[in-house]
Amino acid sequence: MNAEVHTLAGPYALDALPDDERRFFEAHLSQCDACREEVGELRATAARLADDAYETPPASLRENLLSAIDRTRQDSPMGAVNPVRSRDRRMVRWLAPAAAALAVVAVALGALLMSTQGRADQQQVVLDVLADPTARTVALDAPEGTQARLVWSDGRAVFVADGLSAVPDDQLYALWLIRDGQPAIAGTFSPEAGRVTHLVDGEVGDGVAVGVTVEPAGSAFDAPTGDILITGEVA
Amino acid sequence: MDPSAPNRSNRSDGRRATRHLRSVSRRPVADQTDTDLLLRVARGDEAAFAALYDRLGGRVYGLARRVIRDPAQAEEVAQEALLEVWRRAPRFDAERGDATAWILTITHRRAVDRVRSEQASRNRDQVVASRDTTRDVDTVAEEVEQRFEHEQVREALGGLTPLQREVIELAYYRGHTYREVAELLDTPLGTVKTRMRDGLIRLRDALEVTL
Known about the structure:
The complex is a heterodimer of chains A (235) and B (211). Chain A has 235 residues and is of the alpha+beta class. In chain A, 35% of the residues lie in helices and 22% in strands. In chain A, β4 and β5 form a beta hairpin. In chain A, α2 (19-29) crosses α6 (103-115). Chain A is elongated. The two termini of chain A are 27 Å apart. Chain B is mostly helical and 211 residues long. Chain B has helices at 11-25, 34-41, 46-68, 71-88, 99-125, 148-158, 162-172, 178-185, 189-207. In chain B, α6 packs across α9. The longest helix of chain B is centred in the middle third of the chain and has 27 residues, at 99-125. The radius of gyration of chain B is 19 Å and the shape is globular. Chains A and B meet through α1, α3 and α4 of A and α3, α4, α5, α6 and α7 of B.
């Protein structure tokens, strides 16, 4: 485990991590006893800071609360199943074998969970692929500073990258699948904060190559015209 | 300690908790710890919840108000947080930390979420073109009740380096992310993360916090 991730215990205990990094760190916590213990203590320490914020609450707070609890059912001690949480747990299990190596995926997945409301079906497929313990991962050749991976299982694949340069509004990144030397468009995307998690449109299996180019937004996407920035072969 | 984690106690823990509960519920409220009270709340004891509120309400509300500032919103968030405490009490696991920290962690998380979603919607609406970059760090506590704990925390904060103290206060009392703190203080991200951690470790030792 790289040493860098442990320093996130401080910001985590202070609720000072952005959502994507918080998810990533929580995945790490599930693997790291030392961090879990430290986080417990640092959280308890942070809670002491509230001693210094004491302020007499308005009387309405007490009244409203006591009448609210009268109307509110308590959770079961065993914990109700929350679909989002069970999904998180699957993600954590999937991250288990190689959390550090796959950090880029976790970060991108966090960003995805935050940003793709309204595309629930697609998102579910992405999560299924990423959460599949038998899924395979290949690191793609990418420019310095960019990390890109393809994760696939059962013919479905997810392209995940971090550190992508921004492109002008009239351009898009295009992802190509190349089979027997014939490229076919497999989706376009614009990275958010350099990150993208993209469900590959098309079947992926052994012997298929992938490539990423930058193309004009309005083009027909019949064949790549830009330089191939990221490339790799599924094997 | 993750407040959202389910209670992992097994059956024998459950029996132990029940015995513990029987013995504590006979003691006067003043002798009961926050954790004792929360274990009673877990069984639907509304009087225990009221007693817990009388003990922690000022810190819960004060914390929400410190982070959010607006009194009406702070009251709303304090109420949501304490209602969450009521709801989730049956899943509280005393083996994994004390009730005070658990409740204040829930409160802080909710207060920070409120501030960030407010900021996100402001950014979306572009009502505010750029982030608030004023640097008026709180000089903590105005009309605060003079409590022993409060003095202890002030003293412990005073034992930090100025940078440790500043990064912790900006994050905890203002609800800033460490990235925002780095920007506000014009300090590298790595330094901010590290100072948050070693500052908290120093506070932990000064306050003798254990689990």
